[in-house]
């Protein structure tokens, strides 16, 4: 049963990261303005998007699942810190919940 739960959680997280990462490549998406507002260079959204897409895909491969979850968890900590520093409490829910899912994937055993 735990194996199925791991696959389900990893698949849902993969879908979330692939879609979120892909959205950062669209010029009209608004991500450029958000990253600049947070104090990051505009091009940084592309780095984050690429890491999200790659990490999301890697969550679907058992051998790379845990390292990918670790990388993405670090990114979620960065997202939480960014939102805290800019007093955006309403934006904390998604990275905290997703981060908890990533932590579970890291700690889950077959």
- Low-pLDDT ranges: none
Q: Give a count of the beta strands, DSSP E runs of length 2 or more.
A: 0
Measure the end-to-end span: 10 Å
| Residues in helix, % | over 70%
Helix and strand succession? HHHHH
Q: What best-fitting shape do the alpha-carbon axes yield?
A: globular
Mean pLDDT figure: 94
- Our count of domains comes out at 1
Largest beta-sheet details: none
Beta-strand content estimate = under 5%
Structural class: mainly alpha
**How many distinct helices?**
5
Q: What integer value in Å does the Rg equal?
A: 14 Å
Report on this model:
The protein is 75% helix and 0% strand. It is mainly alpha-helical and 110 residues long. It has one domain.
List keywords for this structure.
single chain, 110 residues, mainly alpha
Quick structural summary:
The chain is an all-alpha fold and 110 residues long. The protein contains five helices and no strands. It has one domain (2-107).
Q: How are the SSEs ordered, and which strands pair?
A:
Layout: H1 2-23, H2 31-37, H3 44-58, H4 62-85, H5 93-107
